[in-house]
């Protein structure tokens, strides 16, 4: 195994993906940022030098961080941010996973431009569990705003001006017509597309005109080969898919478009479809490309559901492990949007003059302000968090058809704001039934767990039925992943083994939902040996500044 070393110089740069110049924070002056190439078993060392004007952390999304919980880069959960003018070196092993992941800033909004690919190939001499592709191509989706990032602090976040494929907005906009991602292919060859949705807030459909793809991995876990003409990725998800250039020589659009899934608060426009291009070698460049038809209306929900729920893990493949049958800790978690008191001196647009808040089991997560959660836990410092995150919501009701009926239900509109965590015994098997609710709105939320992959045992619509739905769970070859879209008005059942001591976030990966507090955290307690215990933090772990204002999630 090798040591792979990178320098991430974070600095502001002027870019113009769309119509006007905009100053953004970047890594090494590029958008998207640098691609990290490693092999499974390598050690990754990244020196982050913060020459920007922002407080930052870098999170290695989906990397297990076995025995390196201080390197997770979760702002105020595992570290205080790296302040302007400071630096920090992340150092960790990448083991037990292969495929595509992403790195991104883990401070609200900054992920918009601070992100890039992590490509984990098999150890040398080990093959892929699929035919070797002719070439591999990272394809990174992002959302773009022609405004200063500070404007994105608004709740709800403003609608994006465009999407980007590998930093380019393409020909949907006249001002970016000539800046479109081009993938040159040779007829008959097969390409491995390493697709990443780094968009802040939008699930994206992805389609290539006249071509099917074969999905071979999701979230850096191999899948049974799955053939599809369309894909959907929530923010934070990745798909590795084989594309064979098996069509007549020509030009073909690759298109991304937003999944709109019933969101009455923010009117998501339908016209933010953008294109990249597949260019066959020998094609006439002045012909018009073959077009895609993207899923629309109710068709979106069924397409998303089909793609998300049909994929299965590659039983017996590299790093595959069977589902544990025994559950030690079972949690039922409702997610909802509620209302928070309006801070003095601000304008709030909630229906009762409040501002929107998010919740899990009716708790709105408050990000610690003076010390990271993991440091508070390790040093036994009280007052930073409470370990009373409940295994159930305070009320049972018809989650998918919520209307205020009485005082009790009304309480579910006003979640309790605190930093509450759930402690887990080392090596316990945890089952999470995550129920989306119709409190105020129903949309698909992409729930992401740090530090682990979970098995997705089932997806469904309506209220989870603990008898009938439980019977249908897939315990044989369920997906293994780190981010799952909980269907609008529906549920997912997840299972994971808490075998990595430390503090791990579980949160909605829509960036706009971080300040809303759709977050909770697990603290996995120590195992019996030093190797299974949380070690002291590195001596150069960034310290918090005395001005807590800057840590707003
Ligand atoms: Cu990709 Cu907590 O994040």
TrEMBL record:
Binds 4 Cu cations per monomer. The keyword Zinc-finger does not apply. Residues 529-553 are annotated as: Disordered. This is Laccase. SUPFAM superfamilies: Cupredoxins. NCBIfam families: laccase. It is found in: Secreted, Extracellular space, Apoplast. Its cofactor is Cu cation.
